[in-house]
# Entry
Amino acid sequence: MPDYESERNNLVDNLRRRGYISSPAVDHAMRHVPREEFLPEDLKEDAYVDSPLPIGEGQTISAPHMVAIMAEQLDLKEGMTVLEIGAGSGYHAAVCAEIVGPEGHIYTIERIADLATFAEANLKRTGYGKNVTVIFADGTRGLPEHAPYDRIFVAAGAPDIPSPLTEQLADGGKLLVPVGGRYYQDLIRVEKRGEKLVKENLGGCVFVPLIGEHGYQ
# Structure
C-alpha cells in the first residue's frame, strides 16, 4: 500500500521549491486534499506524479503544479463564492473548497453526466460535499442563479473568454481561463473593475477543449 500522505508532502515540497506554491493557504490545501481519492482505481498509485492523468470520457485531472498555479493566481480567501467550469473528478474544486473554508462555497459545472456523478461521489466521500455543489450543465453559460461570483475559473481551453462568465463576475472579482486553440492555450487572468476588464497573460498551458455554447462546438 503506497504511503500517499508522504508522497503528497514530497510533491508539495517540490512544488514549493519550484515556485508554484508560495501562500500558506495553497500549501495547506495541497497537503490536505487526497488526490488519490479523485482518480480511477487503477491510477491511484500515480496520484503524486506531477502530471495530468486520464479520468475517463476523454477528460483529464490537471497536473498538481497547474492546480497550484491556478489556486495561487485566483487569490482565494475564506468565505468566497467560487464558480468552476469543468468539474472533472472534483479534485480542483476540493482544493479551492479547502481554502475558502466552511463559510465559502464552490459551484462546479460539468457537461459530462458520468463525470458529474463521479465528482460528486468523490467530494462527498472526502468531506467536501457540504460546500461544493456539482451541477450537470453547459458550463460556458455560467450559473446566473448564484451570481455574482468572487472568483471564476475554467479548467478547459476556450477559443475566447466566454461573455456570460465576465457578466457573472463580481466587481473586483477575478476570472482565470485558458484561451487559445484546441491543443495549446495561454492562461488569462481577468480582473473586473467596474465596467472595465483588466487582462493579464500568465503564460502557456495545455487543457482539453472547452465544449459548449460559448466555447468550441
